[in-house]
Specification:
The complex is a heterodimer of chains A (about 400) and B (about 260). Chain A contains 16 helices and 14 strands. Chain A has about 400 residues and is an alpha/beta fold. Chain B has a single domain, classed as TIM Barrel. In chain B, helix 7 links the parallel strand 4 and strand 5. Chain B contains 12 helices and 9 strands. Classes of the chains: A alpha/beta (about 400), B alpha/beta (about 260). Chains A and B meet through helix 1, helix 8 and strand 11 of A and helix 3, helix 5 and strand 6 of B. The complex binds pyridoxal-5'-phosphate (PLP).
Chain lengths: ~400, ~260
């Protein structure tokens, strides 16, 4: 992770914590000291030499990085272009989420925190947090919507095996946004001993930037691997799914300022963008303040948050992180969407053509490959953010 | 025009009782009759809650009142409609309290204009931080002669408390502990030490203590250290499913106020 305290890029956060008009820290006073401490210290802590050493050693020996960049031959033939899969699904715990939790647990230790909380949707971030808490011997509470506890049952058991307490969020849609609310409430009540490991590029500044930096290892490796495999470190396209947007932020990070690289973000369209059962934020959302950040999210005329829908728990979130709101607003990234059905078809396709069963979230990125307009010689990197083990129940039910 | 909040604290320095109630709860049209009952029973000020779907600083009871209010169809424009001629009946200070997003969607300028037109005296937006207030919105608040009221918590540094004291000219909302609304325990010794500390700062603004104030005993303890206190969750519980607001409100207030 190369240090970049250079705030000059128009796609990076500025010193006030904004990406263009998006971002900031709209926090209640109760959280002010915690957020201020993080804002003042995060860069200094994470670019400290000893921190970097420990972070990279764990990424290598514990997470299993670098993850492979795999040329998907049969998939490439099918779409008549050159497709590479960035295999985040091969990370320890099964998704990219662990890159961030390793970074944040090391940060929490340096801040002297003794208790960890997190929110989770698909359970991948919860598992990744429970994992690093076991590793560092810190108590861990994970908030998870009641609906998600049902549909991602294996991950609930994994968190419990790892020693975490899983607390159900029972308000609202009982999914990721409500789990996030509960985690914020916990932090308000436990501001001094607790660190909140947010799982995506959402929340008050500096979380979006901090999470993006921890995930940026994805595009850093992509560049080296592309250089080795194709002779050119820059692809024509990078494609990633967007829930809050952490895997996409990591996959885009080192290409943000190279406008020749087309960035494609894929949102969950649920039953269809205009079905009333969707999570396609950029198409349905407006600017507002949710989870302490000024960003795009789905809301009523009166500013009430609209409950999203996606078959994939990790994309079932009404907003996107401020970095992505800005990429959309500036048209730096193209935003596409895939429905529940298209995602399931993509799962089947990847399983049969490449022998890889992806997570439902990641399948959304596969599902748009026929629509990005790639030419036969173009190099397309798809960030395969996670593996499908957690979704097997859904696959068995839906795909028989 | 003098501000009703300032006037209140000028004529009454102690035992000020402020009640928080979510607009649109329990029924869509409840807020006006509730204001009348609260005034009749000697409540000194009311904080009218503007409902939001995701109230992150609130516990289950106020979350519930927000959900009911939204399901009842309460919206900001409905609320302003309901409060349009409130000043013909109500002369105690009124404060609007709610999360930033609905206000932002309404448009800050429109919101402050309509609030001023209804005779609202102050605004509390817990998730609008001082930095954004100062850089973007302070002048609009001042143009509409509306006081922005800030929260301080046990975590707020003295320097920041002093800054807040300088920025406002109404009262300071002292959050009683590191907690969301709706705490059920009694006031602990460390909370009393914190109240004493706030008192010792000799701030220019009066102080009201809120969060966890729920009955006569907690109200009286808070009043030992501050000019008064704010009751929210306990009041919401008292009027939930009420079939006789007049009776239930009067009984609730009588149980709290000594005099
Ligand atoms: C495998 C996988 N991909 C993607 C996501 C979506 O999150 P983000 O948009 O932050 O990458 C999740 C979230 O749980 C996930 O588990």
């Amino acid at each position: 992770m190369a240090q970049s305290t250079n705030f000059k890029s128009k796609y990076q956060v500025n010193e006030q914590g904004y990406y263009g008009q998006f971002g900031g820290a709209y926090i209640p006073e109760m959280l002010h000291p915690n957020i201020e401490e993080l804002q003042q210290k995060y860069l200094e802590i994470i670019y400290d030499e000893a921190f970097q050493h420990e972070f990279h050693a764990l990424l290598k020996d514990y997470v299993g990085r670098p993850t492979p960049l795999y040329f998907a031959k049969r998939l490439s033939e099918k779409f008549n272009t050159q497709i590479y899969l960035k295999r985040e699904d091969l990370c320890h715990t099964g998704a990219h989420k662990v890159n961030n939790t390793i970074g944040q647990i090391l940060l929490a230790k340096r801040l002297g925190k003794t208790r960890i909380i997190a929110e989770t949707g698909a359970g991948q971030h919860g598992v990744a947090t429970a994992t690093v808490c076991a590793l560092m011997n810190l108590p861990c509470v994970v908030y998870m919507g009641e609906v998600d506890i049902q549909r991602q049952a294996p991950n609930v058991k994994r968190m419990q095996m790892l020693g975490a307490e899983v607390r159900p969020a029972t308000s609202g849609s009982k999914t990721l946004k409500d789990a996030t609310n509960e985690a914020m409430r916990d932090w308000i009540a436990n501001p001094t001993d607790t660190h909140y490991i947010i799982g995506s590029v959402v929340g008050p500044h500096p979380f979006p930037d901090m999470v993006a930096r921890f995930q940026s290892v994805i595009s850093e490796e992509m560049k080296q691997q592309l250089k080795e495999k194709t002779g050119n470190e820059n692809p024509n396209y990078v494609v990633a799914c967007v829930g809050g947007g952490s895997n996409a932020a990591g996959a885009f990070y080192h290409f943000l300022d190279n406008e020749a690289v087309q960035l494609v973000a894929v949102e969950a369209a649920g039953h269809g963008v205009h079905s009333g059962m969707s999570a396609a934020t950029t198409q349905l959302g407006r600017i507002g303040v949710l989870h302490s950040s000024k960003t795009l999210f789905m809301q009523t005329e009166d500013g009430q948050v609209i409950e999203p829908h996606s078959i994939s728990a990790g994309l079932d979130y009404p907003g996107i992180g401020p970095i992505h709101a800005n990429l959309f607003d500036t048209q730096r990234a193209t935003f596409l969407s895939a429905t529940d059905t298209e995602a399931l078809q993509a799962v089947q396709l990847l399983a049969r053509t490449e022998g890889i069963i992806p997570a439902l979230e990641s399948a959304h990125a596969i599902a748009v490959l026929d629509r990005i307009g790639a030419k036969p010689t173009d190099v397309v990197v798809v960030n395969l953010s996670g593996r499908g083990d957690k979704d097997l129940d859904t696959y068995i039910r839906e795909l028989q | 025009m003098t501000n009703r909040i300032k006037e209140l604290f000028q004529k009454k320095e102690k035992n000020i009782l402020s009640v928080f109630c979510t607009a649109g709860f329990p029924e869509l049209n409840s807020i006006v009759p509730i204001l009348v009952e609260l005034q009749n029973n000697g409540v000194d000020m009311v904080e009218i809650g503007m409902p939001f779907s995701d109230p992150t600083a609130d516990g289950p009871v106020i979350q519930y009142s927000n959900t009911i209010a939204i399901n009842n169809g309460m919206m900001l424009k409905t609320l302003f409609e309901q409060l349009k001629s409130i000043r013909s009946q109500i002369n105690i200070p009124l404060v609007l309290m709610g999360y930033f997003n609905p206000v932002y969607q309404y448009g800050i300028d429109n919101f402050l204009k309509d609030a001023q037109a209804c005779g609202i005296d102050g605004i509390i937006i817990p998730d609008l931080p001082m930095y954004e207030y100062e850089t973007m919105y302070q002048s609009t608040f001042e143009a509409h002669q509306l006081q922005n009221i800030f929260l301080v918590t046990p975590q707020t540094s003295e320097a920041r408390i002093r800054k807040i004291d300088a920025l406002t000219d109404a009262f300071i909302y002292v959050v009683s502990s590191n907690a969301i609304t709706g705490g059920t325990s009694n006031i602990q010794e460390n909370q009393e030490r914190y109240f004493q500390y706030i008192k010792s700062l000799n701030l220019k603004n009066p102080t009201l203590i809120g969060f966890g104030i729920k009955d006569k005993s907690t109200f009286e303890t808070a009043c030992k250290y501050a000019n008064g206190a704010i009751i929210g969750t306990a009041f919401i519980n008292a009027i939930d499913k009420s079939s006789n607001l007049t009776k239930d409100i009067s009984q609730f207030i009588r149980n709290i106020k000594t005099v």
